[in-house]
Automatic annotation (TrEMBL):
GO MF annotation: an example: ATP binding
Protein keywords: ATP-binding, Helicase, Hydrolase, Nucleotide-binding
Name listed for the protein in its UniProt record: DNA helicase B
Keyword Manganese attached: no
GO biological process entries: negative regulation of double-strand break repair via homologous recombination
Amino acid sequence: MATSSPQLREIRGPLLPPKVLVEESDECLMEDVEDEDPAFVDAEELCSGGLKAGSLPGCLRVVIADENTQEQCEVFGRFPLTGPWWRVKVQVKAVGSRKYHVQGFPSYFLQSDMSPPNQKSICSLFLKDCEVSSDTRNKFLAWVNNTLGYKNLNFENLRETMRVFKKEPGRNGQKQSTQMEQEESQPDHERRLAVENTIPFISVMTALQFPKIMEFLPVLLPRHFKQLVSSDSKDVLGKIEEILGTHPWKLGFSKITYRELKLLRCEASWTAFCQCKSLLQLMTDLERNGLIIYSKLKQICREHGHTYVEEADLTSQLSNCMSFHDVWQSLQFLKDIGVVTNKKTCIFPYDLYRAERDIASLIGDLMMRPPWRLHVDVKKVLASVCTKRPEDSRSDDTLNESKPDETRLETLEDILNTQGSGDHLLDNGESEDNAEISQGQLDQDQVAALEMICSNAVTVISGKGGSGKTTIVSHLFKHVELLEESEVKKACEDFEQDQDVPAEWITFSQQSPPKSDKAIEVLLTAPTGKAAGLLREKTGFSAYTLCQVILDNYPALNLVTCWKIFLTLLSQESVLLN
């Protein structure tokens, strides 16, 4: 598995104050960032309020004073923190004279003593980074020089020193004694200074309390590091600090980090662990082998698009780094902690197994339901499409533009007389003959497609451009809509014919008929936005891409979770046409 390259050099030393920090292109580092599995966030986890992964830190060019060679090295890489109060340790690859590219991510160590004799300059730069005004910085440093002295100033006493400075009577005039007493009686979190809420200050205080987090988390969890530090969650940070000191292997499994820390899709790669030698020494052979096997299992599933790997194949691919007995023991360890599961000779990552099982269950539930049907004579619907002349369409469009509601209702009966379902009879023999002639000209593929739509809750329609996919869908559901409106109109007219009805009830001719509750909810989707727009235009119904339906609202979901949500929607009597 991944190990440090002998060509790499380790640089350890303080970051020097940069002249200008400009984020640069990361193209040269793309090869150094390990391929990651797509974010696989279950809907339940997404709604749990857990901490989600962020983006990788941007690429910066910094200067590090190497403690071993005393040279100033220009280093290009991903540095989430850049203040000169940090010391870093990083693996680099030479790309020129004293110029290097970072391999992986840096570890951070706080210079808690502010690097004597540079306390004044480092403190000034730090307060500037915390957005303290120039005037306040100068007053504070002058006050420190006259009272405490720069040599006694450090990050451990900085917070208390600033609070004492704030309460200094002569700084902004004498405070009222009652105000002083009120401030003293407030809880510590309510007496926080404004500077204590800034990210640089929180990061420094975190480093004082949780040094292992600053050393290892930027390497192990680069996408979660800044969110964790800026969250200032002492409970979560304390648990991670404890894990790093006792059971660091737990951070290699997202199932465990979610269960114990409520971190979403958060797991360190085996490659990242290989950069943290001291953490590897805390692991047993069983735990290290478990991480190696899990990494290989994910790699095979990702590269081949599988949800499982045959146990014999997995053992064969690991034969160069561990024995068959070690593989068997480590697989049992992974099963015990719930990271993988096995069915017969197949080894599944648990998340993929659960997703596949849930999808199969939802599909099985759909198949066991009673048949879903639209009671429509599809041949007569298509016959009306074939017999409709272009000039009639243009005249109808003109009428519709002038009086949309009235014209729609006036032409409703004529359309339904020729498009009637099995429950509607044709008015005369002439119409019936025309329908029969048209049926002889029907495209049987279109007939089959409409029959499938009318008898299945899920229908996927495919065909080349111009084959009539949108046309048949639009005519079918316009026909269904017209049937419903016709029933409402007929009921209203029958009601108005009642001789005993008061005059004020006869209102149908003055206003559009009331809209009835739709018997069928239809969700039209298409593979592209252009196709969805065409569906909207032709049918008059809302149409979307599947991405718009699900992913726009839940961008962290992956395709498997989308399918689970999609199938759940179908089980609630929705209809999807693609």
